[in-house]
Write a structure and sequence with these properties.
Elements lengths: L5 E5 L2 H5 L9 E4 L4 E3 L5 E2 L5 H9 L3 H4 L2 H4 L5 E2 L4 H9 L4 H4 L3 E3 L4 E7 L5 E8 L8 E5 L14 E4 L2 H7 L4 E4 L7 H14 L6 E3 L6 H13 L4 E3 L11 H14 L7
Parallel strand pairs: 10-11, 10-12, 12-13
Antiparallel strand pairs: 1-2, 2-3, 3-4, 5-6, 6-7, 7-8, 8-9
Length: about 260
């Protein structure tokens, strides 16, 4: 953590949940945006900005200091979103602050969601195309094999398909986008051994996929329980991102009362 200035301290959400931060100052906040808890290791990486990525792309040492996913980005990425992207995000009720998580490429007509690792390096990005047929609706680049992109700090961990669903669910609890709908046994083991282990013995996993993946969601729920994970599946008529915050909270409340009683709601 050297080379950066300590700005302030605040309570660590993980330590507080486990009653280990009575003074409310375990989490250190640094000038580059990263946060680190000296007791449990909870970590939020530095903020990934368009300017930082562009500097890497334009550097003479580009091949030495960028990842393959960074190299394949459109050349004109911008934090200023195009009108098609703004209209689409507003359709799902994202706030201006939440929209800052996305970038825009005017030349490619793509809305881009970047993912960075604990060191602040971009390891993955997914773009939503607005050009229409015959272009693919979504394009992904990078590797998430060694990275768990978890949003939020409290409540059960909810697995959803896309970034918008994850952002909206994270208003109420912890969430993680799959950037697809496939859940491997290896991913479930990593969640069990790392993310869920930090939450203690009462940790809970909720699988909430889009309606067309209901059968797969139920199967993943069974696999999760076979691995010793306290898991539940939400089956809904619409994608998670289509619901308002109070509706998502209602789903979470129903899920909380259903754990250890029934495998799906």
């Amino acid at each position: 953590m050297s080379g950066h200035y300590l700005l302030s301290r605040r309570a660590c959400p993980v330590c507080r949940r486990n009653h280990h931060d009575n003074t409310g100052d375990n989490l250190a906040i640094y000038d580059d945006g990263h946060e680190w808890c000296y007791r449990c290791g909870y970590y939020i990486p530095p903020k990934l900005t368009v300017e930082a990525v562009k500097n890497k792309l334009e550097s003479p040492m580009k091949n030495a200091n960028t990842t393959p996913s960074c190299d394949s980005l459109p050349h004109d990425i911008s934090a200023v979103l195009g009108s098609p992207a703004i209209t689409w995000l507003l359709k799902y009720g994202l706030t201006p602050e939440e929209m800052k998580k996305f970038w825009w490429s005017e030349s490619e007509q793509q809305l881009i969601y970047p993912v960075n690792d604990v060191a602040g390096n971009m390891v993955f990005w997914q773009a939503r195309n607005f050009r229409g047929y015959p272009n693919k609706k979504y394009y992904s680049s990078g590797n998430l094999k060694d990275h768990l992109h978890v949003l939020g700090t409290t409540g059960p961990l909810v697995l959803v398909e896309d970034a918008i669903s994850a952002i909206k669910v994270a208003r109420s609890c912890t969430s993680m986008p799959l950037f697809g709908s496939h859940i491997t046994k290896e991913l479930l083991l990593r969640l069990r051994n790392h993310v869920l282990a930090m939450a203690g013995p009462s940790s809970e996993l909720i699988i909430w996929l889009d309606p067309d993946k209901s059968e797969e969601a139920l199967r993943y729920g069974n696999v999760s329980r076979e691995l010793g994970i306290n898991a539940l599946v939400i089956l809904s008529l619409s994608d998670p991102k289509c619901y308002a915050t109070f509706e998502i909270q209602n789903f979470m409340a129903l899920a909380g009362s259903s754990f250890n009683a029934t495998p799906s709601i």
